[in-house]
Design a protein that fits this description.
It is built from 10 helices and 11 strands. It is α/β, with parallel strands linked by helices.
């Protein structure tokens, strides 16, 4: 079985306990990781603190702490992890998530077929309040970094995996390069995304025979802070997603860049509206709120896409795709 390197990108000491929990969940895997790489995004205090915490291997588990070698942002952090990794498979775990015991086992099983270049999993929310807000539609769980209603169950082929719970064969980066800077999150700025979508589309172009999978048995649990349970964040994040999709379309073309989104808006969301209306008519809590949130989310994302497209056409967007070759075991 190929060795798996797990990359966790961290940027703030506010998530200290979450980072420790993420690392502990990797150490507890039924299929051990070759190594865990903690990439710190331009935060010297956090880098020093994590370096002391993981100075010595525990239970034979190797944890390497290293600084982001590129510009600030998640894409550069991931590229740093890829370049430093030794595994034939590189898996990514969010710094505020914990993986179930068989997470790596199920990810690795997908690579039995040599054509498989990427395998993702299912991400479940852990709401800070203890329960999903009544108004929050499951179709928009991507807003909080989780698997949304509408994705097919089981192990299925997809256009792209979701970056917080994903893995790639090293050959994917050899063929397509790493994550593009200029797309995705950058510290505490607007909550952009889309960097994994852009990479996956670029990979499929470089390797037309490539297969990308999601296996919903590869489960992680993602913490949703209280601030992200409010409609204000929902609106901000959906608008930012529209901006992100405009960047992706600018990079790889609208046909592929919006392929999955067309199905989502024409099939998944209308079904969500129908369920919300039914629940409202039956007097169930949150039905009308979910309908309103779906409509607001679509309009907000569309607005972001229009603004992002205009900015991109004016030449205000640049992309840089780094080579992301790593070491070998």
């Amino acid at each position: 079985m190929p060795g798996i390197s797990v990359v966790i990108c961290a940027y703030t000491e506010d998530r200290w306990e979450d980072v420790l929990a993420a690392v502990a969940s990797v150490r507890a895997q039924s299929r051990p990781a070759l190594e865990t790489l903690l990439v710190v995004d331009h935060n010297q205090a956090l880098l020093d603190r994590l370096g002391k915490e993981f100075k010595d291997p525990q239970d034979g588990a190797v944890v390497r702490v290293l600084p982001n070698a590129g510009p600030r942002g998640l894409s550069s952090g991931r590229n740093t992890g890829i370049a430093a990794s030794r595994g034939e498979i590189v898996a990514f775990l969010d710094d505020d998530a914990v993986a179930e015991r068989d997470w790596l086992k199920h990810l690795a099983e997908g690579y039995a077929d040599p054509r498989v270049m990427a395998v993702g999993g299912r991400t479940e929310p852990i709401w800070a309040s203890g329960r999903r807000p009544d108004w929050f539609p499951e179709e928009f769980d991507w807003v909080v970094g989780c698997t949304y209603r509408g994705l097919p169950p089981g192990r299925v082929r997809v256009r792209n995996v979701l970056g917080g719970n994903a893995s790639f064969r090293r050959g994917a980066f050899d063929a397509a390069g790493g994550f593009a800077t200029g797309i995705g999150r950058d510290g505490n700025k607007r909550p952009l995304g889309g960097e994994e979508t852009e990479l996956c589309i670029r990979l499929s172009r470089a390797r037309p025979d490539a297969i990308l999978l999601i296996d919903d048995r590869a489960v992680i649990h993602h913490r949703v802070p209280e601030a992200r349970e409010h409609f204000r964040y929902f609106r901000t994040r959906t608008y930012a997603e529209g901006l992100s999709k405009a960047l992706v379309a600018r990079s790889v073309g609208a046909e592929k860049g919006l392929e999955s989104e067309r199905r989502y808006t024409t099939r998944v969301l209308p079904a969500g509206v129908a369920r919300g209306l039914r629940d409202a008519l039956l007097g169930r809590p949150g039905g009308a709120g979910r309908v309103g949130a779906i409509v607001a989310g679509v309009l907000s994302a569309a607005g972001g896409y229009v603004v992002g497209s205009v900015r991109a056409r004016r030449g205000g967007v640049t992309f840089s795709v780094a080579e992301a070759e790593g070491g070998r075991p």
